[in-house]
Ribosome-recycling factor (Inhella inkyongensis), 186 residues
Amino acid sequence: MSIADIKKTAEAKMAKSIESFKTELQKIRTGRAHPGILDQVHVEYYGSMVPISQVANVSLLDARTISVQVWEKPMAAKVEKAIRESDLGLNPSAQGELIRVPMPPLSEERRRDLVKVTKGAGEDAKVAVRNVRRDANEHAKRLLKDKAITEDEERRSLDELQKLTDKTVAEIDKLLAAKEAEILAV
């Protein structure tokens, strides 16, 4: 494995960390309705747990209401129960095969809690990026020890990895700040 391979692998893993963080941020709801909020809710369908999107159409009725249109009438009660029992704090109401999920307005205290959750997710993403950097640094040091590269090449690769890490952490901070502003906006 060469220095270029180590850097390319580290870059790919850091990009995956950012994508994972973006996915986590989408799960944290703000006052507005978003169909992706229900992506993490699973419902029992013929003996297996599947996401709601595989048994119903999930769409927006308006800025604060999600509509869930089940494909099979008996599934309506199961989907409604799954949404109610999820940790999202939502209270759906069924009207035949259509389930309306109103998004309650967030209190100031709940907004602060969501900011804490967001910061925790950001810190987890930063730790993942730093772990990738550590692994890449160990590979570079191992190449130096095996005399596959010179000390200058090793030092240069460590500097490049640090710059890549700094850039990735800055991107995570930017995403974090944007989500915090979105949560705190009334």
